[in-house]
Amino acid sequence: MRSLVMKFTLLTGALIFATTLMLMTLENVSAQRETRNLLVDRSLASLQATATRLAGAVSVNNSNYIDLYVDELISSVGANEMYVLNNRREVLGEAYSDGRSEGQLRAADLAVMALGAGDLRYSLTDGVLEMAAPVYTEERRLVGIVYAKRELVELVASRNAALRRQTLIALFALGIFLPLAALIVGRALKPVQTLTDAARLASSKTLDMRIDVKTGDELEVLANAFNRMFARLDGNLKRIHRLAYVDMVTELPNRERFRKETERVARKALEDGSSGAVLFLDLDRFKRVNDSLGIGEGDRLLEMVGRRLSEVTRGCDMAMGLEEPSMVARLGGDEFTVLLPSIQDSADAARVANKLVDAIRLPFEISGHQVFLGVSVGVAVFPQDGADPETLMRHADLAMAHAKRAGGSAAQFFEPTMNQSAFERLVLENELRDAVNQDQLVVFYQPKVLMKDGTCAGAEALVRWQHPTAGLLSPGAFIEAAEECGLIGEIGDWVLRRACLQAAEWRKQGLEIPVAVNVSAMQFERDGFADSVLEALEAAHLPPHLLELELTESIAMENPERVIEQVQPLRDRGVNFAIDDFGTGHSSLSYLTRMPFDVFKIDQSFVRDMTTDPHARIVVETILAMAKSLKLETVAEGVETTEQMQMLRLQGATLAQGFLFGRPMPSADFVEFATDSREAPGKDRAVNE
User: How far is CA 634 from CA 246, 448, 620, 652, in A?
Assistant: First the structure.
């Protein structure tokens, strides 16, 4: 702003200086004109008098007299050069002020003009006056001319003096008026300076200000507009900051804010040698609660979880006497993070993590219902587990995944081996994608036998992976990876189509045996599930009654109404349904009586322990009694001993499968097994194992 005042002041000073010079110049021109006219008139009069004196001598061409007389007259005239010519243009006399004895007439034109015209002639150029006066006798006869050249030094001196005088006057005026102009300009531009300062502050994000300009003109209008604009900008910036750094559901810091804070704290830890920790939290069973109560209630639950986490961390901060408080943030979904900026050792982080786990285990009150959650916590300590936010969060996430796979509701510290496990899992997922695309998957079939005579009455289709280097892999080696990377649905569809084609091929060979196919949660929850099943049956030309679909009890009970909606249309077409792993979930008897299922599959954990654990035996007996009352078939899984088979037979089990009868086998081996069992019914199949 000072620059603007200076510019206006200098401009005003320049105008004052120029105006003064212009006025003085006009005055000087007028004075110079008067002085010049006076000097010219005097010089012409003196020359004319000289011409009158020389009239007699010129008329008789008396050059001697004229020469003598001209030398005397040149000084009286004040000329530098003087010539006397007769009417024939002959020089009768000449004189020079610098003492030259002879010279050359240099102004012949002017002399000729005066002689020809017979009157006075003069020329003034650059302060040099040239004059030519005619010489007349008393009888008014033109007999010659007198020419003189004079430098008007008085005129030059007068002009120089005038220039010095007007310059001094201009400088004097400038010295007086320039400070006054600076004061006036400064006062006039003060509102502009205020606006400029406000704009400079606004550019540095200082928007909480008020511009006070009371000029009553356009500047006041502009200042008020600035105030309104700054107020809106300040509000918008605060809203943008909130959107950028605050989670809208829980009012906690979001991922970006947490990342920036972690970066700052981790850098500080490297500089001063301190330690801190990043905790990665993932809620257990939240999806089930969210699906049951709805998204709105789910958001309320997340808000309550965030508030509880904040309360616990505040209490831990006070207990540990931390100068800088911990930060709780929500990354998204049901994932939260906690930043512990300063800890003495890993035990501090462990105590905080365990308190968080215990706090989340306590029930939440939502819409009159008590909701129970759990939380899996992964802990990464900095700087040893990482010095940047991305590495720390990745390592804490890996530790959390280990805690969740171990059963959840627990805390797990990051270990370097987890990186290797994660890399191996990534490699496995990539190879599994190639396996699906390159047809490396195969289907094995485990027989189901009738308990009464050992005849093969069905088959369960089980996928295997013919790995190019590791050989034949069982589902336990890759199913979990398939679920995590989203391939389980594609693999399930492929197994369904392949099993239908194989059962249709057996039927052509005269072996009409139903085949059971497991259905994953991803397949079942997908829109168009029933259509995909019917398309597989139609493509294989397989009668629907030869296909049995197995749903786990957890899938069946998660949303019973949807199960009824999805299952009943297929069951009406003849497709059979079985509840797999029955007894391991939490079935509702009210729903169980309405469920459109045909078979209970007793989980192998009960079958395995029924000979040694009375409680397991009671569970099996109860399931068998329930199935008999509901007129459903039962399949006992995992039968491995003759004692187990005999107990199941006594309790009324209809079908069994397990290593006692046959392991999962290729199609050709299964056909041989089924043919033998039908040709020799009642034979003890266990002798083959």
Answer: 54, 11, 10, 9
